[in-house]
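Hi support team,

I've been running sequence recovery on a batch of backbones for a student project. Most finish fine, but this one hangs at about 90% for roughly twenty minutes before it completes. I'm not sure whether the input is malformed or the queue is just slow. I've pasted the structure tokens below so you can try to reproduce it. Let me know if you need the job ID as well.

Thanks,
M.K.
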């Protein structure tokens, strides 16, 4: 407004912009240099080097000039998530809320500060500008651009367009991706079925091998980062199965690329995610394929994608629904509930029960399921968990922790589901102190799971999370298949593409973890 007269000094005018998780320019250069061995063509090498510069420029962005020092981010990070990455320093006009310099603390990128900040001072580092530029100049870059949608986004994005929480927008999302310029629309629920299939197989190996309990889910990058930095002794308890997002990208750049006869490096995969931590996940070396390509190229949060649509005059509330693309178009209901806390566990148990039943009937069960055989047992009959919800009991005194004892084909398992990192810390500490014992745990960093993720529409509160979760369970009930092992598309992929090749399954569907180094933050301006 050109207001020049004020009796107050502009105490925030020259405040910095912090990039949380950013690498040093020298480290980025070293990574860019290493790319030369995989990308001999100069144009492609330049493209991939620019990509690394964005991926490693940080995951969250804190614009201190907007901050009003209300302390809500500090509170949620310290008291709810127990990460304690922010601090408020100074007094009076000198007060400043900032990322901490303490070596023992680091951000896990869950983005709970983002959804709690009342003035939008903290955001995921934006990828939308690059994605928009790529969509507008596909020919120049010679790329096919794929959009893929996470399970929970379908029940939250409508809120950005004035619709009530819990409105299911799957068809509208597919149509919007094409309208804004993507070449194909994929649903990450399809690859969530692959995650379930491999996770259930891993659970059975875990039980057979008598490995230390509990086995713990690993599809939440916020939780994995928390384990790698704050609880490294639990790294060996994480399942090696990749997250649905990464599996989806890996399958698009291998299976789908083969079907379409396109070079994997000419495919760009853009994820629409409820999550700011996914921006970190895609940048990890462990999620590069053997040809040097990242499984996923860019991540837009739910809010970023809604912004991109609005900017291009696309109203999701008015768009005509369409189908997701083949051959990765069909998923089970078990995959849709991945978006809510408890969903991953429930899906894995449905399929683990089937595998255990099968194991009793057939010594060659494993070769058969990896070969995609449909006739290896009647999954509808053998899976009692197939058509009903698993009942979890809330554990008194620990909100966000639910437990159950399940019997799978005669095998008794004590399982628990945790959401929110404060709850995870309590439970892991109890396990360390031998005060709690579980066989299998699901841990998600955000309250309520991904429906409460750091990239979701604001406001996100418990009433809104409940509506989003209810909508996901409703979709599960309405879909005709309820288990990953009943997904014909998945069986076809195992049969035709993997053909029992364990090495290929390992490369595309599994990964390994390591002790987390502190990334801290860098000043961007
Ligand atoms: Fe991301 Fe979901 Fe984990 Fe939150 S719970 S950090 S949204 S994967």
């Amino acid at each position: 407004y050109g207001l020049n007269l004020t009796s107050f000094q502009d105490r925030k005018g020259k405040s910095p912009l912090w990039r949380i998780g950013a690498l040093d320019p020298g480290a980025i250069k070293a990574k860019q240099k290493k790319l030369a061995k995989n990308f001999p063509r100069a144009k492609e090498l330049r493209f991939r080097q620019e990509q690394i510069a964005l991926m490693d420029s940080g995951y969250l962005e804190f614009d201190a000039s907007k901050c009003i020092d209300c302390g809500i981010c500090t509170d949620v990070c310290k008291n709810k998530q127990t990460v304690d990455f922010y601090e408020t320093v100074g007094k009076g006009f000198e007060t400043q809320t900032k990322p901490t310099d303490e070596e023992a603390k680091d951000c896990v990128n869950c983005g709970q500060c983002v959804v709690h900040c009342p003035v939008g001072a903290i955001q995921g580092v934006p990828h939308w500008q690059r994605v928009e530029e790529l969509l507008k100049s596909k020919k120049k870059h010679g790329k096919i651009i794929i959009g893929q949608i996470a399970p929970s986004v379908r029940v939250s994005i409508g809120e950005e367009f004035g619709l009530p929480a819990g409105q299911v927008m799957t068809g509208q999302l597919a149509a919007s991706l094409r309208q804004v310029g993507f070449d194909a629309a994929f649903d990450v629920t399809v690859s969530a079925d692959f995650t379930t299939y491999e996770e259930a197989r891993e659970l059975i190996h875990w039980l057979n091998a008598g490995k230390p309990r509990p086995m713990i889910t690993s599809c939440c990058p916020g939780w994995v980062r928390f384990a790698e930095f704050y609880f490294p002794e639990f790294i060996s308890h994480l399942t090696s199965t990749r997250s649905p997002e990464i599996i989806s990208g890996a399958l698009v750049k291998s299976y789908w690329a083969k079907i379409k006869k396109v070079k994997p490096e000419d495919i760009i995969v853009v994820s629409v995610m409820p999550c700011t931590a996914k921006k970190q996940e895609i940048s990890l070396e462990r999620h590069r394929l053997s040809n040097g390509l990242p499984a996923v190229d860019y991540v837009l949060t739910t809010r970023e994608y809604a912004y991109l649509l609005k900017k291009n005059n696309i109203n999701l509330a008015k768009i005509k629904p369409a189908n997701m693309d083949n051959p990765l178009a069909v998923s089970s209901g078990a995959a849709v509930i991945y978006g809510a806390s408890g969903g991953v566990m429930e899906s894995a148990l449905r399929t683990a029960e089937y595998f255990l039943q099968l194991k009793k009937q057939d010594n060659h069960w494993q070769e058969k399921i990896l070969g995609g055989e449909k006739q290896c047992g009647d999954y509808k009959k053998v899976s009692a968990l197939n058509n009903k919800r698993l009942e979890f009991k809330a554990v008194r005194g620990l909100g966000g922790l639910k437990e159950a004892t399940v019997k799978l084909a005669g095998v008794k398992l004590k399982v628990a589901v945790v959401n929110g990192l404060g709850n995870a810390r309590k439970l892991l500490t109890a396990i360390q102190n031998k005060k709690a014992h579980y066989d299998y745990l699901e841990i998600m960093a955000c309250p309520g799971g991904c429906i409460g993720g750091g990239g979701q529409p604001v406001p996100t509160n418990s009433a809104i999370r409940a509506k989003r979760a209810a909508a996901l369970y409703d979709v599960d009930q309405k879909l005709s298949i309820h288990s990953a092992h009943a997904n014909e598309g998945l069986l076809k992929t195992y049969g035709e593409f993997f053909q029992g090749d364990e090495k290929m399954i390992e490369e595309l569907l599994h990964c390994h973890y390591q002790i987390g180094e502190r990334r801290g933050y860098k000043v961007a301006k």
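--
Follow-up from support: It reproduced on our side and the slowdown came from queue contention, not your input. Residues 80 and 422 are 5 Å apart (CA to CA). No action needed from you.
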